[in-house]
Write a structure and sequence with these properties.
Layout lengths: L1 H25 L5 H23 L9 H26 L5 H20 L2
Bound molecules: protoporphyrin IX containing FE (HEM).
Length: about 120
């Protein structure tokens, strides 16, 4: 099961690269890559949290407050990215929404690494 967990961590890191890289490469527009990265973070993050809390054999003791904060931020990232992308497709430019999604994704990287 540890391999499955590690695989989810890899996917989580690739999703992080997609959302942050997609932001930096395409701003001020929300790219398709950024939207998929934001979706991936929600799904892989929830899988990681579920496995870490549910399986004693993994030996993890996840901080539920930290995970709750990451979840709220990730929902905001996905929301801004989805709406920003839909607007971009209709030719409407809402730059602040791109920056909100990208900025909050970077905040979540900081939370992930610095919150101990
Ligand atoms: C934009 C959204 C997100 C970003 C950018 C992000 C980023 C990261 C990064 C960079 C790491 C690696 C940290 C390290 O190894 O020190 C990480 C780990 C982790 N994340 Fe996220 N995350 C996001 C959303 C979420 C969500 C929604 C959850 C679950 C509620 C979550 C749960 C976890 C867990 C459990 C780990 C630990 C993996 C391990 O065992 O090392 N993440 N995240």
């Amino acid at each position: 099961m540890e391999f499955v967990y590690d695989l989810a961590v890899v996917t989580h890191l690739l999703g992080m690269a997609a959302v942050v890289g997609g932001y930096v490469a395409a701003r001020p527009v929300v790219s398709e890559l950024m939207v998929w990265g934001a979706r991936a973070q929600l799904i892989t993050g929830l899988i990681l949290a579920g496995l870490a809390s549910g399986l004693d054999s993994l030996g993890k003791e996840p901080d539920t407050t930290k995970l709750a904060v990451k979840l709220v931020i990730a929902i905001a990232v996905a929301g801004f990215a989805e709406v920003g992308r839909a607007d971009a497709k209709r030719g409407k430019k809402v730059d602040w929404m791109t920056d909100a999604a990208g900025g909050l994704a970077i905040v979540n990287v900081l939370v992930a690494v610095l919150w101990n």
